[in-house]
Design brief:
heterodimer; A: alpha/beta; FAD/NAD(P)-binding domain; 2 domains; seven-stranded mixed beta sheet; five-stranded parallel beta sheet; elongated; B: alpha/beta; Glutaredoxin; five-stranded mixed beta sheet; 35% helix; globular
């Protein structure tokens, strides 16, 4: 039986593992894909205290090694279910069932899709969810970015330096993201704003050739693009926990700065809980809080 | 087997004319998910003798990337008898890579 099982090896989960190990608890971290979480998509982190510049990959790798060197066990298995019995809890993966005294859910979030037909088939053939990964393939080509938050704005800005032309498509007439980025974009002569519109259709022949954009009056226009970068937000990966853990309407685990859930001994850390600020530094901070709460829970149970 | 670096000079020999199937990993140094995939790919390569795994840097080998319509990385392409049979885009788990390769 483990003391603590952490689900997810992103910044929140790995930080929780570090705190648990420093309190001499035995801890298993379960990760579906590979360590690091979404920070690995960030080329340069400039807002994490101490390091002025560090790549997301380097950050994740240092954190992973730190947790491992402290004795955290890390397995690459996808968690599909959790069970709660009073004194012991179970975590079920596609391969095994593990018993533990406490659980920390740190699964983060995944890209929200547009939800229109052909989207999945065209990933890698014109559709992308990562501008910094794929922007370079569109040198001197025409692309569109869809979304209204900071990711969409930063993607558009990054792409405007590489491609011939960027359309920025947003369903409202105002952006949620930073005003300073919007102003930078307005100064670019290769960025065109399309407000009050949704992408409603993808036209392709082997690869993406054009998109159909529908405005709020229902008027459709076809735009020829080589690439479409989707940045319409993220969805928390809590689908497997809703049976026993309370989620809000958007699927986030209902919690607060204490990182508790409605179930005693099950805690939550990082982007998949209800919170105001979803940043790297708040994810690692959640990891520390959740681990401390889990340690206290185990010690008091004895 | 170890992962082999492939460029346009040895692509035909190493990939198209290979006796066994080949998994080509199109990647770049600046791409975080590609860096994450690298150690996983290396592990899979060491554990499998029935497949040759090659790495193609898309910055150096932009013509190969273009020829095979790679427009999102990391991109894994499986070649059997010189023909593309399967493709996967984005960071995937070791299990998924093994599924992609097949028996």
């Amino acid at each position: 039986m483990y003391d603590i099982i952490v689900i997810g090896a992103g910044p929140a989960g790995l930080t929780a593992a570090i705190y648990a190990r420093r309190a001499s608890k035995n801890v298993l971290v379960l990760e579906a894909k590979s360590y690091g979480g979404q920070i690995i998509n960030t080329l340069d982190i400039e807002n994490y205290p101490v390091e002025e510049h560090i790549s997301g990959f380097d950050f994740a790798t240092k954190l992973y090694n730190q947790a491992k060197n402290l004795g955290a066990e890390i397995k690459f298995e996808k968690v599909v279910d959790i069970n709660n019995q009073d004194n012991e809890k179970e975590v079920i993966t596609t391969k095994n069932t593990y018993k533990t005294k406490a659980i920390i859910i740190a699964t983060g979030s995944e890209n929200r899709k547009l939800g229109i037909s052909n989207e999945d088939e065209l990933v890698g053939k014109g559709i992308s969810y990562c501008a910094t990964c794929d922007g370079a393939f569109y040198k001197k080509k025409t692309v569109a970015v869809v979304g209204g938050g900071n990711t969409a704005l930063e993607d558009a800005l990054y792409l405007s330096g590489i491609v011939e032309k960027v359309y920025l498509i947003h369903r409202r007439d105002e952006f949620r993201g930073s005003e300073s980025t919007v102003n930078l974009l307005k100064e670019k002569n290769n960025v065109e704003f399309i407000y009050n519109s949704n992408v409603t259709k993808l036209n392709s022949n082997e690869k993406l050739e054009s998109i159909v954009v529908t405005d709020k009056e229902g008027i459709e226009s076809t735009i020829k693009v080589d690439g479409l970068f989707v940045a319409v937000g993220r969805i928390p990966e809590n689908q497997n926990f809703g049976k026993i853990i309370n989620l809000d309407n958007s699927g986030y685990i209902i919690s607060d700065e204490k990182c508790n859930t409605n179930v005693e001994g099950i805690f939550v850390a990082g982007d998949n809980r209800t919170k105001e600020v979803r940043q790297l530094v708040t994810a690692t901070s959640d990891g520390a809080v959740a681990a401390t709460a889990a340690i206290k829970y185990i010690n008091e149970k004895k | 087997m170890k992962v082999i670096e492939v460029n346009k000079e040895n692509f035909e020999d190493e990939v198209l004319n290979s006796d066994i199937k080949v998994l080509a990993d199109f990647n770049a140094n600046w791409c975080g998910p590609c860096q994450m995939l690298k150690p996983i790919i290396e592990e899979v390569a060491l554990e499998n003798d029935n497949v040759k795994i090659v790495s193609i840097n898309i910055d150096d080998e932009d013509l190969l990337a273009e020829k095979y319509n790679v427009s999102s990385i990391p991109c894994l392409v499986l070649f059997e008898q010189g023909k593309e049979t399967k493709r996967s885009v984005g960071l995937i788990s070791k299990d998924d890579i093994n599924t992609l390769i097949g028996d």
